[in-house]
């Protein structure tokens, strides 16, 4: 057993075999049996089943007596492996379809996946993960401790780094966790992992050398720990923790769809940050009141050709219809030329964070920008849509971007489309210059959305992907709090709504401050919504405003952290820090 | 054949632990024991089929027992399902 430390960027605990993304993989193949092989194959299946059950019983025996539940999750797992329906159906497939045990098990699992997918209850639906994990173990045993892991079976993805294109190729249903050698709290891996609810640990030095394909890994996405080939006691401890997390989550999720109103009646809209159409059902189930940030880069980074207007429109329409009657906030393309799967013919940049990206790239590539705007505006006829521009640094850019929208609207009207109301237009506030002129920008947009990841990066001059300075990235820096205050004040004085859609918006620790600032909307990865709503309902808006006043008087992040911490403790609210 | 309706009282519904407890209990009897919710039926000692019935808190479930010691099995399982801690 070996413990490796990294940065936990997406909470949750996963246990599974390692899949090194660099290496090739072995698939489970279907073998057709001769009729006389059937009896032997069924015996082989039972032997593997019994060996797996024995392993689990062994685990149980090693748990110290005082920790033993009268009936632990291990018992539930053993019962799943002994399940009469499961055994019967697998045998039946081997006998009647003449297939090998691995293939039969996979088919039976698929049947259960289908049944569980339909269940209305989130907690129960998630139980299929336990079965997947167990069947995997049996298949491992069948294959004689085969070290190869296929991407079609549940696995922990281990890689040096994961690009947006890499993560897009992975199947969310079989990816148990991400572990990467590089990265930070706000890197792409972290964001995708959080939005899909997959535990992730980044910046784990040497992980690709330490881990061999098929090694059993425990990944703790909150503590930032990876345990390679854990002992059975450690496995049991983690399985129980995982169950506890899931049970808490089920309780929180029950009230997720109700609005978030403070004790003194102040309502805050809680919306989702999404990137994929696949995230829609989960976001709705977890209580998203629409989308505060729809990242639209996915279709551009995953394929060789640029997406067509029709393709974009079709995806956008489904998202807009899916969230109707709630609003969907489209952020127009927010990437640099280097990120496109199809390389745009643009020069390589030394400092892409300060280079030609986001709205700058769009304004420079009218065809690219207009295609996307056309698709968004067409989709807006199917529900409620807002549009926001990323990386606005001054009025000139904003006005030019708005002109594009106007032109596209006129084009579409000429083509016969009728707009009853045009989408609201907003500016992302994420560059310090935009904060300085927030009062001017507020006169020309319908809403602001604060992108804290970039705002903090640009305000503090910290590259969040650089491991040597990443620890200096500090949301509680007094400068950051003053910037937020200034943005909210400017927005509210002009009578427009101010939202926040950065990572900070989904962290419960910052919530009393964010509520106190008077933000009208918080948008976050869907997984954080139940916990955030739950805490908002226990806060008092007036008290939060006072907390902000106090915080703004302090001079260092440390002092502010202590203030917030003791504020939580005085009110006995620390309980609500955990994600679930 | 004996039947009795119960309302699930556990906060999380018939989740993994209670379903395991149910299966363990059912296995001790030689009677055939089923759970029926709406039009769907599951063997009580198949934890997977029981979970798939999706018995959330407040669900009305019919317990069916037949064969040896059916009466005793039925009353023990009904008690188990209607207890809050199950």
From TrEMBL, chain A:
GO terms for molecular function: kinase activity; metal ion binding; phosphoenolpyruvate-protein phosphotransferase activity. Keywords: Cytoplasm, Kinase, Magnesium, Metal-binding, Phosphotransferase system, Sugar transport, Transferase, Transport. PROSITE patterns: PEP_ENZYMES_2 (PS00742). It comes from the Bacteria. The active site is at 188 (tele-phosphohistidine intermediate), 501 (proton donor). It is an enzyme of class 2 (transferase). Gene3D superfamilies: Phosphoenolpyruvate-binding domains (3.20.20.60), Phosphohistidine domain (3.50.30.10), PtsI, HPr-binding domain (1.10.274.10). It catalyses: L-histidyl-[protein] + phosphoenolpyruvate = N(pros)-phospho-L-histidyl-[protein] + pyruvate. GO terms for biological process: phosphoenolpyruvate-dependent sugar phosphotransferase system. Residues 152-224 form the PEP-utilising enzyme mobile domain. It is found in: Cytoplasm. Phosphoenolpyruvate binds at residues 295, 331, 453-454, 464. Its cofactor is Mg(2+). Residues 253-540 form the PEP-utilising enzyme C-terminal domain. Residues 5-127 form the Phosphotransferase system enzyme I N-terminal domain. Its EC number is 2.7.3.9. GO terms for cellular component: cytoplasm. Mg(2+) binds at residues 430, 454. Coiled coil: none annotated. General (non sugar-specific) component of the phosphoenolpyruvate-dependent sugar phosphotransferase system (sugar PTS). This major carbohydrate active-transport system catalyzes the phosphorylation of incoming sugar substrates concomitantly with their translocation across the cell membrane. Enzyme I transfers the phosphoryl group from phosphoenolpyruvate (PEP) to the phosphoryl carrier protein (HPr). Belongs to the PEP-utilizing enzyme family. This is Phosphoenolpyruvate-protein phosphotransferase. The gene is ptsP.
UniProtKB/TrEMBL annotation, chain B:
SUPFAM superfamilies: HPr-like. Residues 1-86 form the HPr domain. It comes from the Bacteria. InterPro entries: HPr, HPr-like, HPr-like_sf, PTS_HPr_His_P_site. It is found in: Cytoplasm. One of its GO terms (cellular component) is cytoplasm. Gene3D superfamilies: HPr-like. Keywords: Cytoplasm, Phosphotransferase system. GO terms for biological process: phosphoenolpyruvate-dependent sugar phosphotransferase system. PANTHER family: PHOSPHOCARRIER PROTEIN HPR (PTHR33705), PHOSPHOCARRIER PROTEIN NPR (PTHR33705:SF2). Belongs to the HPr family. This is HPr family phosphocarrier protein. It comes from Thermodesulfatator atlanticus.
